[in-house]
Amino acid sequence: MYENTFPNKRFKHTIQFLEKHVPNNETILDLGVVNPFSEIMKKHGYQVENTSGEDLDIDTSNIEKSKASVVTAFEIFEHLLSPFTVLQSIKADKLVASVPLKLWFSSAYRSKTDMLDRHYHEFEDWQFDWLLEKAGWKIINRQKWTNPTKKLGIRPILRWFTPRYYIVFAERIVK
Predict the structure, then answer these.
(1) What are the residues facing 170 on neighbouring strands?
(2) In whole angstroms, how far apart are CA 108 and each of 13, 131, 136?
(3) 3-state secondary structure of 106
(4) Who contacts 153 (Cβ-Cβ below 8 Å, separation ≥6)?
(5) Per mean pLDDT, which range of 27-31, 94-98, 160-164 is the poorest?
(6) Contact at 8 Å (CB) between 43 and 19?
């Protein structure tokens, strides 16, 4: 079903990680508008609702109102100025989130045409862990993977060995 190409490789790793930690009878709030991966989750039996495209830095009301038992956030937090606020507003007890990792040999992604498609943060794994812990989450499992390309050059070679994506399964710390 998935090839070893972008974004299919990422989707394959993500759904395998999700299925390992979240039974498909759980309800999911997927941060972000309906997207190809939210459709993949539905095909795997998950009941998925999405946020509506609101600016989550300003408006977390859909997150706060959700009755979902799990929140997913796949490559969302790097686009937010304040992911801490969003993480704290989650009412669900489980979180599955992935972020692109900061690459020492490549600058942060910045779209030249889409003002919303920019990365304010590209995390190192320890930074994302710290953010989650500070926002009240305990990481249960984590995984990284590379995103190699078939291009020539120093950077494409480095992408074969340097992890690009980081995914975690976390549970809310009871206070």
Answers:
(1) 95, 139
(2) 22, 19, 27
(3) coil
(4) none
(5) 160-164
(6) no
Per residue in 114-156, pLDDT tens?
A: 555 665 677 889 999 999 999 999 999 999 977 767 777 776 6
- Tell me: domain 8-172, CATH 3.40.50.150, correct? yes
* H helices present in the chain, as ranges: 8-21, 36-43, 61-65, 83-89, 125-134, 154-159
CA atoms within 13 A on the CB side of 15: 19
pLDDT digits (tens, 9 = 90+) for 69-87: 999 999 899 888 899 999 9
Helix H or strand E segment including 30: strand 27-30
Structure tokens at 113: 């045409």
Report pTM. Answer: 0.86
The pairing of beta strand 137-145 with beta strand 165-172: antiparallel
Phi, psi of 95 (to 5 degrees): -140, 130
Domain range annotation of the chain:
8-172
Tokens 């801490």 belong to residue: 84
- The residues that bridge with 139 in the sheet, in sequence order, are 170
**Straight-line distance from the first to the last Cα atom of the chain, in angstroms, rounded to the nearest whole number:** 42
The vertex-54 CA angle with 50 and 57, nearest 5°, equals 110
